[in-house]
């Protein structure tokens, strides 16, 4: 049921790959809640063609390719988005992450550091680029909202999450630091959402993901949060009901982040 929480708002969604992705679900729900959208992803992802289905379902939203590690691409994205909307945007979802070391099976203790630089560039520094370009172009309305997706491995050790844990820690730091400056200048708020492990294309690529998904479910009093659940949280963060929430890392994981152990896990260990 739609509540039209985003009626009249305009937003850019980064990273919708297919209908399993959190960005995809968020775009669908933002549109249902009254928002106008621009969709963007890396040119290589756009060639897969999936995003065109989402664009059609979201009122024939424009699809504009942008490499998040390229400032000129981002400037073009914001310029074309403001031209399409006839003004500034109100919200941005940063749902971007990639690790070549994980793809190539490199252990954390033997990383290819050139690949690591690429991971940081795409998965974390891209948030700074997006914020900086928007800041310099005055592309976001007052009381706008930027949300980036993160994971609790930024604070705790999950061995097979590899260098992405470092990237997420940097991502969260950028959200805090840029959140201060953007808040002072334009009342724009920047937050990260630390989501449950979610069976997306990217998440499922982490070694042992299936086992950890089951473990997290047993460790979460409310159970794991789904992609659809996360989309609802994003909509709330884009809405006017969260105008004074900024520079926060918001756990959205069914209680996993503050649970030491559960009876279900103890019972399994005792078997």
Structure description:
The structure is a single chain. The protein is α/β, with parallel strands linked by helices. It has one domain (10-270): NAD(P)-binding Rossmann-like Domain (Rossmann fold, 3-Layer(aba) Sandwich), CATH 3.40.50.720. 45% of the residues lie in helices and 14% in strands. It has ten helices and six strands. It has a six-stranded parallel β-sheet with strand order 2-1-3-4-5-6, sandwiched between helices. β1, α1 and β2 (36-40) form a beta-alpha-beta unit. The longest helix has 25 residues, at 113-137. The mean pLDDT is 95.
Gist of the model:
This protein is of the alpha/beta class and 271 residues long. 45% of the residues lie in helices and 14% in strands.
Which SSEs are present, and which pair or pack?
Layout (H helix, E strand, L loop, with lengths): L9 E5 L7 H11 L3 E5 L2 H4 L3 H8 L13 H15 L3 E6 L5 H4 L9 H25 L2 E11 L13 H23 L2 E7 L13 H11 L7 H12 L10 E4 L10 H8 L1
Parallel strand pairs: 1-2, 1-3, 3-4, 4-5, 5-6
Could you give a short account of the major beta sheet?
A: 6 strands, parallel
Question: Can you identify the CATH class?
Answer: Alpha Beta
What is the number of domains? 1
Beta strands, count: 6
Mean pLDDT: 95
CATH fold-level label:
Rossmann fold
Q: In percent, how much strand structure appears in the residues?
A: 5-15%
**Element order: H for helix, E for strand:** EHEHHHEHHEHEHHEH
Quaternary status: single chain
Distance between the termini: 44 Å
Would you identify the CATH architecture? 3-Layer(aba) Sandwich
| Backbone CA Rg | 18 Å
Helix percentage range: 40-55%
Question: Could you give the order of strands across the largest sheet?
Answer: 2-1-3-4-5-6
- Main structural class: alpha/beta
Low-confidence segments:
none
Number of helices: 10
Full CATH superfamily name: NAD(P)-binding Rossmann-like Domain
């Amino acid at each position: 049921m739609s509540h039209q929480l985003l009626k009249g708002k305009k937003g850019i969604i980064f990273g919708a790959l297919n209908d399993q992705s959190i960005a995809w679900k968020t775009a669908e729900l933002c549109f249902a809640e009254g928002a106008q959208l621009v969709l963007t992803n890396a040119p290589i992802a756009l060639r897969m063609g999936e995003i065109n289905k989402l664009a059609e379902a979201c009122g024939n939203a424009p699809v504009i390719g942008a490499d998040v590690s390229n400032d000129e691409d981002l400037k073009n994205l914001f310029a074309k988005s403001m031209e399409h909307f006839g003004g500034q945007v109100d919200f941005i979802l940063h749902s971007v992450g990639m690790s070549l070391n994980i793809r190539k099976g490199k252990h954390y203790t033997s990383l290819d550091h050139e690949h690591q630089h690429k991971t940081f560039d795409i998965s974390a520094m891209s948030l700074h680029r997006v914020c900086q370009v928007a800041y310099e172009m005055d592309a976001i309305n007052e009381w706008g909202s930027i949300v980036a997706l993160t994971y609790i491995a930024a604070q705790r050790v999950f061995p097979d999450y590899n260098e992405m844990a470092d990237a997420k820690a940097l991502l969260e730091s950028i959200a805090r630091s840029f959140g201060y400056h953007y808040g002072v200048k334009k009342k724009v708020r920047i937050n990260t959402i630390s989501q449950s492990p979610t069976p997306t294309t990217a998440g499922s690529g982490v070694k042992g993901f299936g086992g950890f998904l089951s473990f997290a479910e047993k460790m979460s009093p409310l159970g794991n949060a789904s992609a659809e659940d996360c989309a609802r949280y994003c909509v709330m963060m884009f809405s006017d009901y969260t105008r004074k929430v900024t520079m926060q890392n918001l756990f959205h994981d069914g209680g996993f982040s503050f649970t030491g152990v559960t009876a279900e896990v103890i019972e399994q260990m005792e078997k």
